[in-house]
Amino acid sequence: MRAARELFSHFLGNEEGATAIEYALIAGIICLAIVGGATAVGASTGASFNKAAAGFNG
Predict the structure, then answer these.
(1) DSSP letter at 3?
(2) For 9-50, how does the pLDDT look when each residue is reduced to its tens digit (9 = 90+)?
(3) Quick one: CA dihedral 35, 37, 39, 41, positive or negative?
(4) What is the greatest pairwise CA distance in the chain?
(5) What is the DSSP string of 44-56?
(6) Whole-angstrom Cα distance, residue 36 to residue 29?
(7) Beta-carbon-side half-sphere exposure of residue 9 (alpha carbons within 13 Å)
(8) How far apart are CA 23 and CA 14, in angstroms?
(9) What does the pLDDT read at residue 1?
(10) CA separation for the pair 26, 36 (Å, rounded)
(11) Distance CA 22, CA 16 (A)
(12) How far apart are CA 10 and CA 17, in angstroms?
């Protein structure tokens, strides 16, 4: 019975899993920011190229 208490106490004190989840959430947020930024830059660049192409066509 004492071993079960010690095991449960050790389980509650272990924070390695929580830290891994926190790092995964941070990495996910950073990835979303990168994708959002790249999409915005790509749309802006595409609009600039389309404007330049329209200028060449007349």
Answers:
(1) H
(2) 776 777 777 788 889 999 999 999 999 999 999 999 999 999
(3) negative
(4) 86
(5) HHHHHHHHHHHHH
(6) 11
(7) 6
(8) 16
(9) 64
(10) 15
(11) 10
(12) 13
CA distance 54 to 52: 5
Please name the amino acid found at residue 49.
F
Distance of alpha carbon 32 from alpha carbon 11, whole angstroms: 33
Which structure tokens are listed for 36? 């959002």
- In single-letter form, the type of residue at position 53 comes to A
43-55 per-position pLDDT tens digit: 999 999 999 999 8
Q: How far is CA 5 from the centre of its chain?
A: 38
Reading the block at residue 19, the tokens are: 């830290």
What distance in Å separates the CA atoms of residue 11 and residue 17, rounded to the nearest whole number? Answer: 10
What does pTM read for this prediction? 0.58
